[in-house]
Specification:
The protein starts with 5 loop residues before the first helix and ends in a 13-residue tail after the last helix. It has 3 domains: 105 residues, Acyl-CoA dehydrogenase/oxidase, N-terminal domain (Butyryl-Coa Dehydrogenase, subunit A, domain 1, Orthogonal Bundle); 120 residues, Beta Barrel (Butyryl-CoA Dehydrogenase, subunit A, domain 2), CATH 2.40.110.10; 150 residues, Butyryl-CoA Dehydrogenase, subunit A, domain 3. A hairpin with a 5-residue loop joins strand 4 and strand 5. The protein is built from 13 helices and 10 strands. Helix 4 runs antiparallel to helix 7. The relative contact order is 0.11. Strands 1, 2, 3, 4, 5, 6, 7 and 8 form an 8-stranded mixed sheet that branches. A two-stranded antiparallel ribbon has the order 9-10. It is globular and about 80 Å long. Bound molecules: flavin-adenine dinucleotide.
């Protein structure tokens, strides 16, 4: 067993002494956790993965995962802020961005902004590359038009990375790019044409706004275009490879919530008596607890391996298949472990005197957001079989017309 990192210890202290007691309140009031965000910023945990040259700590994704796990054990909402302030959109900008873009993002994130990543649309969820939001070339930049929904932080975030189909002045398609849109919701200051249409009412993670955003010809100056290194034609692949870091972060939240629930359950089994004995003496519950513990450990190992893969990958981001595998396993395990922990509390688990019902509502999100469990399985299978697995009818038709390979492709370990 290795010693916990210094960052993990800072996070543990904050989680135990500040965030744990406030978690039920954010859930009840549906307020964004501004107070926690201020303390995260003060502790240097907002933007910890930002390179030192830009004022961050230059922490690795692996170190960030330790922080996320500690915070997720007590407050899922705050852990989501930490993920999005260190992985995903911020990682894309810190890797592909211009010096001015990097400086802007570093300044705002280090001061407490949680950037919003805007990919999903009403007609493009799992089929994200079928997005219809456009960025039309105009003098001095681009105009963004379209609707994004389920955008985490919509209405509180200042920085937005909007994925859009890039078009020339005459409407010819060029591919997909990222466009930086800056707003100041605290001052109700949004660029012309940018509207926060509404906030969803969610079953869990209640303090986090999930919003529909409308862009009606929003102007993005040339210097706020995030240019994927392979150009717009392969822009989606480049931008999504940065997103692999966010997937590892999301999986780590699910694992952290499960680890927190496991700990609550373990203590309760030792304390609660029925039939004149502590629950801990019943083998049925002991085996449940052992399975929960094994699931949490296995999730942690997959996530750590995926996070560590960034250190040797040419892109600097976690390996795509390892990230998919880790998020898939950790999210499904998280849902099961928290559900089992709640069961061990009997009626008490169903009430709000214990955090289990909140944790069960919160953790449910992670098999959906950021790539559903089904989509991740498709991605993993595609990598195993070394084939593209198109999901559109046209794609399948094309695949059926392609001659079958002479032999099964060799399975690769990633
Ligand atoms: C709380 C929350 C926060 C989110 N935050 C963001 C955010 O910040 N930014 C952002 O861009 N998006 C965000 N999302 C959106 C999220 O990424 C999408 O919900 C997700 O990609 C799935 O899209 P969908 O909801 O449209 O489901 P659909 O794509 O409509 O899928 C419906 C069901 O069909 C299944 N399915 C779809 N296609 C296939 C297939 N080919 N094979 C098998 N099964 C399939 C899915 O797995 C799912 O079970 C968030 C979502 C949630 C719930």
């Amino acid at each position: 067993m290795t010693e916990p990192s210094a960052l993990r210890l800072i996070a543990r202290e904050l989680a135990e002494t500040r965030f744990a007691d406030r978690a039920a309140g954010w859930d009840r009031t549906r307020e964004y956790c501004w107070r926690n965000v201020a303390e995260l910023a003060e502790a240097g945990l907002m933007g910890m993965t930002i390179p030192r040259a830009h004022g961050g700590r230059g922490a690795s994704f692996l170190e960030a995962c330790g922080v996320i796990e500690e915070i997720a054990k007590v407050c899922t909402l705050t852990a989501r802020v930490v993920v999005e302030a260190n992985m995903g959109a911020i990682s894309a900008v810190m890797t592909y961005g211009s010096p001015a873009q990097k400086a802007l993002w570093a300044e705002l994130v280090l001061a407490g902004d949680k950037p919003a990543i805007c990919i999903t649309e009403p007609g493009a969820g799992s089929a994200a590359s079928e997005m219809t939001t456009t960025a039309r070339r105009v003098a001095g930049g681009y105009r963004i038009s379209g609707t994004k929904h389920w955008i985490t932080g919509g209405g509180v975030s200042r920085l937005h990375l909007v994925f859009a189909r890039v078009e020339t002045e005459t409407g010819a398609p060029e591919g997909i790019g990222g466009f930086i849109v800056l707003a100041d919701p605290a001052r109700n200051d949004f660029p012309d044409g940018f509207t926060v249409v509404r906030r969803e009412r969610t079953m869990g993670l209640c303090g986090m706004p999930e919003a529909e955003l409308r862009f009606e010809g929003v102007f993005v100056a040339e210097d706020m275009v995030l240019r994927p290194p392979s150009g717009f034609a392969r822009g989606f692949a480049d931008l999504m490879s940065a997103y692999n870091s966010q997937r590892v972060g999301a999986g780590t939240i699910a694992m952290g919530v499960a680890a927190g629930a496991l700990d609550h359950a373990r203590r309760y089994l030792l304390q609660r008596q029925q039939f004149g004995r502590p629950l801990a003496e019943f083998q049925g519950l002991q085996w449940m607890l052992a399975d929960m513990d094994t699931g949490v450990h296995a999730s942690r190992l997959l996530l750590e391996a995926a996070a560590a893969s960034a250190q040797t990958s040419p892109t600097g981001f976690p390996d795509r298949t390892m990230a998919a595998r880790a998020k898939l396993f950790a999210s499904e395990t998280g849902v099961r472990v928290v559900n089992d922990a709640l069961q061990m509390f009997g009626a008490r688990g169903y009430g709000d005197a214990e955090p289990l019902e909140r944790m069960a509502r919160d953790v449910r999100m992670f098999t959906i957001g950021g790539g559903t469990a089904q989509v991740l399985r498709t991605q993993i299978a595609g990598a195993l079989l070394d084939i593209k697995t198109p999901q559109t009818r046209e794609g399948y038709t094309r695949l059926a017309q392609t001659p079958a390979p002479a032999a099964m492709p060799t399975l690769r370990a990633s």
